[in-house]
Amino acid sequence: MEPLRFIAEDGARADPFPLSPEELTRGYREVVRARVFDERALTLQRQGKLSVYPPYKGQEAAQVGAALALDPGDWLVPSYRETAAALACGLSMSQAILYWRADPAGWRYPDDLRVLPFYIPIATQLLHAVGVASAGRYQGEDWVALTFIGDGGSSEGDFHEALNFAAVFQAPMVMVVQNNGWAISVPTEKQMRNPRIADRAAGYGIPGVVVDGNDLAAVWHVTREAVARARAGEGPTLIEAVTYRVGPHTSSDDPGRYRSADAGAAWLARDPVSRLRAALEGLGVWDDAREEALRAEIAEEFAAAVREADAAPEPEPQQIVEQVFETMTPDARAAWEVLRRG
Known about the structure:
With about 350 residues, this protein is of the alpha/beta class. The chain contains 11 helices and 7 strands. The longest helix is centred in the first third of the chain and has 26 residues, at about 20-45.
C-alpha cells in the first residue's frame, strides 16, 4: 500500500487535484502558523517560560490537513502532540501557551470549542474518541470525532479496543496514526512486523488508508472522505500518515542519543511547509510579498498571545484539583482544603 500523494517534493501537483486554490492557500496559512507556534514555543521552553513541550515540527501537514476536514460541529480528541491540529480547529495561541505552562487557566477550553484537552497518557484518548463519537449518535447529532495517535501508541491495548469497539458499533470516528518512524527512541521496524499500520484496519473490518503525511492536500482529501463516510453512518476509518519527527520527542529528549545526525536528511526535501509553498507558487497565487505579510501577521499573533498569557492571574495551589471532577469527591475536597490553607 503506497502512500497517496498529490503534491510532489518539488511542489508539482497531480491532475486531478482535490483542493481549490483557496483551500490550498488556507491550508498553507495554517501550516505556517503551526510551524511558527512550534518553533517559538520551544524557544519559550528553553527560556524557562513553558513547561515540558512536545514539538511537532515536520508533522504540520498531517495534523492541519486532517483538522481542516472537520465541520464546525465535529470534535477533535488529540494526544499530547496535536497542538497544530488544535490551533487549526480554533484553539487560541494564548490558551495553548497557558496549557503548556501547566497553568490551570489553560485547562478549561471555551464552551463552544469542540476540542478536548491534550491527553498525556498514551492512547487513552482513543477510547474517549469512540465515546464522543457514539454519544453524538445517541443524541441524534451528526458530529464526527477525529483522533490521533503515533506509531508507538498503536502498540497499546487501547488502540485495539478503540478500533474494535468503533468498528462493531459503527461509531462515526476517524483515527489518524502519525507514523513518524519513532516511538520515542524505538524505530518502527523494531515495533512491528507489518510494514503498514493501516493494514491492521482489515482485522477490524474497516477501511485503512496510507497517505503521505507531509502532503497537506492528500491528508485533507482522505480525511474529508473518511469524515463523510463516518457522517453517513458507514463507520470508522484508520488513516496512516507517513511523516517524520524532525525535532526531539519532547523538550526533555535528546534524539542524538538514538538516531544519527543525518537520519532525517532525506526528509528535508519533503518538508511540508516549503513543499506547499512551492505548489502555491506554481499556481501563481503566492509570492515573497504575501509570505512576508503572513509571517509578520503570525509573529504579531504569537507576541499578543504571550502578552495575554503573561497577564493571566497567578494560579492558586488548590486550582490543581478543581477541574478533575464536575463535583469534587471527598478526597479531592480534602486535598483542596489543604492546598487552600497552604
